[in-house]
């Protein structure tokens, strides 16, 4: 638990800038969509806010750049792109006769713009590591509430839509569903930057097929093949990029580095690193702490990828052999060997590798876990238990896409695929 003594840092304050957008639009040149025009003064001020600018220093794909060198794009890129797609979706739905007020348009754009603002360093790779049990979604909402106070209540509608408390449910579905602006952007963007062309989706075609029926987001039935392509692309991107075996190895190693650093800090040893990083290594926070003390949130928002990587560089020469070895392996890209398969690994093989690690590195019982990782991953391209993609037919009825008679591919994509893997020092690969 966090100490009850007052925190030795001040609460961050921000004074919104006066905007001249009434006379001049702001334009962002995006490599995916071209010129993105910012017309709303509030949205421009939110983009300009230090909380949002921090996303420039949060990688979209964690350590994926160790496999795909071009994958250096950030959460900032993604948030701007998702907001752009939201504008296109709103335009389409209005053209089809669905009423969306100016306030609702602003609200849903702000909500998608800020949906990832709570991500910590390296995005999903380190989620629940520095602050166990606290999700980026919960932090995003907390930050939005803080910004709402800063901007005099102008984010109230956005928060209602984000939390699914707005009367129009389809607006929330545009942010979070099986076919939302978040997924449409990250699939296309991650495909572009990684160079994995199989993940590319025709977002414009999908946007033009969006519709609303009974307050639910649906897709015009003639867009069925575009949806199928979207789901196939998602499945391929998960295996080829998000769950690429080398990426899995690197990111689990990153988690173990932070776990070891936290262990050393808890023993009272001082670690090199930025003040923000050392603070969270030495202090165990819970969600209640964030609720009770706003200053903790500001301290968290000082953290980004740079803090973690600078710490790892410093720790390559640390006296703790586990911490230094893992840190050197990451900086030098000498990653743990990974084996992945459909079935669980034989206990005898696991024990043999664990014993060899203890012997080779003179580890005590349990320390081998830092260099031996056993886990599993699941790829579920279309999970109808977490929502549906419904097709809207000309006669007005709707049907889940997985129930379409001739879409055997979609039915197959609805089944989860699970893989088991182990990571270990590659010099021991002869043992398995």
What does this structure look like?
The two termini are 41 Å apart. The strands form three sheets. The chain has a four-stranded mixed beta sheet with strand order 3-4-7-8. A three-stranded antiparallel beta sheet has the order 5-9-6, sandwiched between helices. The protein has a single domain (1-335, 381-415), classed as Orthogonal Bundle (Hypothetical protein af1432), CATH 1.10.3210.10. A hairpin with a 2-residue loop joins β3 (210-213) and β4. The protein has 432 residues and is of the alpha+beta class. The protein has 18 helices and nine strands.
Rounded mean pLDDT is 91
Helix-strand category: alpha+beta
User: What is the name of the CATH architecture?
Assistant: Orthogonal Bundle
Low-confidence stretches: 1-12
In which order are the strands of the major sheet placed? 3-4-7-8
Helix content: 40-55%
Overall spatial form:
globular
Task: Compute the CA-based radius of gyration.
Answer: 23 Å
Largest sheet: 4 strands, mixed
Q: What's the domain count?
A: 1
CATH superfamily placement: Hypothetical protein af1432
């Amino acid at each position: 638990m966090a100490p009850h003594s007052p925190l030795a840092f001040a609460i961050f304050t921000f004074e919104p800038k006066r905007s001249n957008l009434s006379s001049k639009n702001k334009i962002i040149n995006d490599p995916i969509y071209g010129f993105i025009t910012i017309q709303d003064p509030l949205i421009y001020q939110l983009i300009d806010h230090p909380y949002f600018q921090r996303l420039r220093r949060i990688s979209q794909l964690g350590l994926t750049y160790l496999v795909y060198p071009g994958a250096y794009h950030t959460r900032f890129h993604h948030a701007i792109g998702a907001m752009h797609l939201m504008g296109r979706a709103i335009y389409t739905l209005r053209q089809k006769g669905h009423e969306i007020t100016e306030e609702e348009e602003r609200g849903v754009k702000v909500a998608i713009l800020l949906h990832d603002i709570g991500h910590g360093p390296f995005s999903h790779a380190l989620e629940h590591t520095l602050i166990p049990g606290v999700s980026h979604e919960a932090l995003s909402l907390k930050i939005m509430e803080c910004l709402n106070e800063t901007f005099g209540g102008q984010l109230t509608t956005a928060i209602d839509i984000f939390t699914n408390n707005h009367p129009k449910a389809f607006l929330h579905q545009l942010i979070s569903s099986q076919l939302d602006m978040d997924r449409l952007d990250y699939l296309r963007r991650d495909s572009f930057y990684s160079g994995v062309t199989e993940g590319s989706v025709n977002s414009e075609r999908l946007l033009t097929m969006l519709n609303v029926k009974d307050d639910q987001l649906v897709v015009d039935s003639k867009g069925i093949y575009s949806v199928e392509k979207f789901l196939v692309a998602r499945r391929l991107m998960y295996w080829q990029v998000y769950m690429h075996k080398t990426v899995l190895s690197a990111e689990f190693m990153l988690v173990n580095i932070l776990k070891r650093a936290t262990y050393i800090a808890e023993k009272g040893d001082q670690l090199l690193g930025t003040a923000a990083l050392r603070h969270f290594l030495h202090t165990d926070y819970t969600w209640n702490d964030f609720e009770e003390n706003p200053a903790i949130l500001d301290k968290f928002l000082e953290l980004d990828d740079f803090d973690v990587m600078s710490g790892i560089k410093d720790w390559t020469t640390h006296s703790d052999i586990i911490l230094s070895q893992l840190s050197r392996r990451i900086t030098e890209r000498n990653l743990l060997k990974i084996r992945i398969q459909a079935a669980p690994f034989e206990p005898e093989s696991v024990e043999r590798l664990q014993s060899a690690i203890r012997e080779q590195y003179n580890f005590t019982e349990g320390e081998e876990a830092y260099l031996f990782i056993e886990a599993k991953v699941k790829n579920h391209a279309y999970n109808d238990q977490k929502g549906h993609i419904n097709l809207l037919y000309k006669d007005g009825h709707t049907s889940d896409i997985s129930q379409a008679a001739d879409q055997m591919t979609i039915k197959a994509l609805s089944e989860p695929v699970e893989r088991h893997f182990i990571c270990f020092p590659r010099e021991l690969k002869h043992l398995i």
